[in-house]
């Protein structure tokens, strides 16, 4: 059985390419975050300063999956 994922809010700092972003966690840690498959298919774009829902695994706190926008 896989370990449960960790969900957190994060702030987009910059966009690195079509699906990869630099994001900041609430504790100030800067990580890489990529769009989830549904967001990639929907061609979602997030601007710097946007607050997003992130999904991390217990094995890698250096990267996350972007699940969606929190700001609305």
How many strand elements?
Answer: 5
Report the uncertain regions.
none
The proportion of strand residues reads: over 45%
**Structural Rg:** 11 Å
Overall geometry comes to globular
SSE series:
EEEHEE
- The top-level CATH class is Mainly Beta
Structural class: mainly beta
Strand order of the largest sheet: 1-2-3-5-4
Biggest β-sheet strands, sense, barrel: 5 strands, mixed, barrel
Helical residue percent?
under 10%
Distance between the termini: 34 Å
Helix count, DSSP H or I runs of 4 or more residues: 1
The CATH architecture comes to Beta Barrel
Total number of distinct structural domains = 1
The CATH H-level superfamily is Nucleic acid-binding proteins
Give average pLDDT, whole number. Answer: 93
Jot down its keywords.
1 helix, 72 residues, mainly beta, OB fold (Dihydrolipoamide Acetyltransferase, E2P), 5-stranded mixed β-barrel, globular
Question: Mind explaining what this structure looks like?
Answer:
This protein has one domain: Beta Barrel (OB fold (Dihydrolipoamide Acetyltransferase, E2P)), CATH 2.40.50.140. Helix content is 7%, strand content 53%. Strands 1-2-3-5-4 form a 5-stranded mixed β-barrel. The longest helix has 5 residues. The radius of gyration is 11 Å and the shape is globular.
